[in-house]
Amino acid sequence: MGKGPWNFGPRRGGQHFINSSVYDSGKSVLMTKGEVQEAAKKEMIECLKTLEGELGERPYFGGENLGFLDIVLVPYYPWFYSYETCGNFNIQAQCPKLMAWVQRCLEKESVSKSLHDPHKVYDYVLQLRKRFGVD
Predict the structure, then answer these.
(1) pTM higher than 0.90 for the full model?
(2) Domains of the chain
(3) d(Cα 86, Cα 99) in Å, to the nearest integer?
């Protein structure tokens, strides 16, 4: 861990990366159109690929068990469907190892029961896009 500029090691650089880069690019994918959205989509994919690279061959970011970074990232999963639908891209095609990680996380009842339904999140996103004049 800790190969890139974000230092995903014990000082929690990964948390900052997720809560800034992933959040910011995701918000732009959801709440913009055209060139701005395309740029955000590319940034989002880069962010997710960075995380996928950090995950490596481990089952979880924490190793054999869920760790801090897993707990920080997994709540973004219900938004993936909205990112994909609004941005017209496929996270599974771009980041298959990351999506396999999602499935492993969802196998844990404590995770699956705590996350919102992705389709309900998308309905909420549609309301936001309408309210803010995106659509």
Answers:
(1) no
(2) 13-129 (1.20.1050.10)
(3) 18
